[in-house]
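Structure (tokenized):
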């Protein structure tokens, strides 16, 4: 287990991976940033030196200490060894600080670093005073149990992410159940989740060039750190692991309609993040009808108008004729009624 821990934690304590190659770096052996009183600790300083000169300056809480070698050894640590350590070599600038804590308790949760960058490993060790045997170990994050082991007191998170932020503690059985003090772990974000953007807003007409860009930014700079980008439409891979953050649809067609998303990842795949989906809708071009179609259309409309006009004239004349006929019939009927009335009156006068 110690060999595995050493391999995983061959990273400077306190997540000291500097973008500046001239900055010194401190490494702890054993790799814990908190120890019990009377335990031994070795701090190593790595940085560029002058030829033939390996002298190293060490600082505790800003004050220079007597050690002038790359290794600063703390034998039988005491509360006086608590504090912030820095180092500097002949050609380096001062290292980032490493905070060492010396405790006196029954149980101690040791961590490889209190601050890590997502994707880095984090090892936790539930450690008994004077290496007393402990068992039935429980690890807690923010008050909730996330790991139980009957005998193994060490646990490694191989790839940390932002969900691993929080306060950690452990409890274990010895003569009775003991519980450690809490340790605050901070996971720094390497880069935010990408956002996929298109050069044209949807809907898009067929034939247009569309640029898709997977937008994110490294929040921490490190030597040789490079992001790789992949583009997808649904479950179909369009472009895989490319250093370019853009993808082009040279000539959009209706078949290019769909849900697009992208992925950003580090070279070793320790941090992988996806963008939300972006919907693209491509519309077909509306072709213009030929000239002859317009000619026939307007000719047909003209003919229909002429036919309608002729029918209207015929109907109007027919209505007028019927109206005149009805009037004549009405007049003839009235005259006959008057003649019959006169005849009846004469007959009445002639009667004795």
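Design, position by position:
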């Amino acid at each position: 287990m110690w060999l595995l821990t050493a391999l995983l934690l061959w990273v400077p304590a306190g997540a000291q991976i500097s973008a500046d190659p001239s900055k010194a770096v401190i490494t702890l052996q054993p790799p814990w940033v908190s120890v019990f009183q009377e335990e031994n600790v070795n701090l190593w300083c790595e940085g560029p030196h002058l030829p033939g000169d390996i002298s190293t300056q060490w600082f505790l809480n800003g004050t220079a200490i007597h050690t002038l070698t790359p290794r600063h050894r703390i034998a039988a640590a005491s509360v006086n060894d608590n504090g912030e350590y820095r180092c500097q070599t002949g050609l380096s600038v001062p290292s980032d600080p490493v905070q060492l804590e010396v405790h006196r308790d029954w149980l101690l949760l040791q961590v490889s670093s209190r601050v890590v960058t997502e994707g880095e490993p984090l090892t936790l060790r539930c450690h008994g005073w004077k290496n007393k045997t402990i068992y039935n170990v429980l690890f807690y994050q923010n008050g909730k149990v996330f790991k139980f082991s009957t005998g193994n007191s060490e646990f490694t998170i191989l790839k940390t992410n932002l969900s691993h932020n929080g306060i950690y503690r452990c409890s274990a059985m010895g003569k009775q159940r003991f519980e450690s003090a809490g340790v605050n772990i901070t996971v720094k974000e390497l880069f935010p989740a990408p956002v996929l953007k298109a050069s044209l807003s949807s809907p898009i007409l067929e034939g247009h060039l569309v640029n898709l860009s997977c937008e994110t930014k490294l929040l921490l700079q490190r030597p040789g750190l490079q992001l790789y980008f992949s583009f997808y439409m649904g479950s179909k891979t369009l472009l895989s692991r490319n250093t370019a953050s853009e993808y082009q649809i040279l000539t959009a067609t209706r078949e290019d309609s769909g849900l697009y998303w992208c992925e950003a990842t580090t070279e070793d795949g320790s941090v992988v993040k996806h963008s939300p989906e972006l919907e693209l809708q491509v519309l077909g071009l509306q072709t213009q009808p030929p000239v002859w179609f317009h000619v026939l259309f307007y000719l047909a409309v003209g003919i229909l108008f002429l036919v309608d006009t002729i029918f209207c004239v015929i109907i109007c004349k027919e209505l007028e004729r019927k109206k005149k006929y009805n009037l004549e019939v009405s007049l003839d009927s009235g005259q006959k009624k008057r003649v019959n009335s006169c005849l009846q009156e004469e007959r009445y006068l002639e009667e004795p």
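Reviewer-requested clarification: The helical segments are 2-8, 291-350. The first helix runs from residue 2 to 8.
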